[in-house]
Design goal:
This protein is α+β, with helices and mostly antiparallel strands and 209 residues long. The chain has two domains: 118 residues, 2-Layer Sandwich (Alpha-Beta Plaits); 64 residues, Molybdopterin biosynthesis moea protein, domain 2 (Alpha-Beta Complex). It has seven helices and twelve strands. The chain has a five-stranded antiparallel sheet with strand order 2-3-1-11-12, sandwiched between helices. A hairpin with a 2-residue loop joins strand 11 and strand 12. Helix 1 packs across helix 3. It is elongated. It starts with 5 loop residues before the first helix and ends in a 6-residue tail after the last helix.
């Protein structure tokens, strides 16, 4: 039998302790969240929920070990994507989802990131005076012209479709226009409560409905 590092054993014990202590346990994705913002989110959740980052295989082991006392909780393993962590609380799963969604903030589109939805540059005055920026807009496919001494976008334009990668040029253009199309925050993938698994699409239903 392969030797298991002591810290891994201790980590699984810690994870099991958290899972056993709380009635509601979920899987979250923390990918692309700046450290400062994550720290602020943890602070806001203090007293409401516990977040514990760990390796996927160690969370898997902890869920398997807890499955006897919390039937079906092992099914959370199928929802681990990105930079995984567990979140544990006594809150209603729908309320937890709403709190996490409300805490998300807008962020610039970085080159190489994948757009979760269409990124649209709206029609109207850009605030820029005539100059090289007009050519930059046209180069990334944004129809623009000079109108009354300002550069104006002629119509709402999708510059990146959902699922496509943001290019360096598009990212630079969006940044200059102060358009922050990305959403950054704790992404709740699935939650366990009373032997049931609630996925994010179910949790998105208003908790009062």
């Amino acid at each position: 039998m392969a030797h298991v590092a002591e810290w891994k054993k201790e980590e699984v014990i810690e994870l099991k302790g958290i899972i056993d202590e709380y009635d509601v346990v979920g899987i979250v994705d923390l990918l692309n969240i700046p450290a400062k913002q994550l720290q602020e989110m943890r602070k806001n959740l203090k007293g409401k929920a516990v977040i514990r980052m760990s390796k996927k295989n160690l969370i898997d082991l902890a869920l398997e070990d807890c499955n006897a006392s919390k039937n079906n909780i092992v099914d959370l393993s199928g929802h681990m994507d990105g930079q995984v962590a567990i979140i544990a609380t006594e809150m209603n799963p729908f309320k937890l989802y709403k709190i996490l969604e409300d805490s998300k903030t807008s962020a610039p589109a970085k080159p190489g990131t994948v757009a979760p939805e269409d990124i649209v540059v709206p029609a109207g005055d850009t605030g820029f005076e005539p100059g090289p920026f007009l050519g930059e807009l046209q180069q990334v496919g944004i129809p623009a012209k000079i109108d009354k001494g300002k550069i104006v976008v002629q119509k709402d334009t999708v510059v990146v479709e959902a699922g496509e990668t943001v290019s360096k040029d598009v990212a630079a253009t969006l940044s200059r226009m102060e358009i922050n199309p990305m959403e950054v925050g704790i992404d709740l993938k699935a939650v366990y409560e009373d032997e049931a698994i609630y996925t994010s699409d179910v949790l998105a239903i208003d908790e009062e409905q």
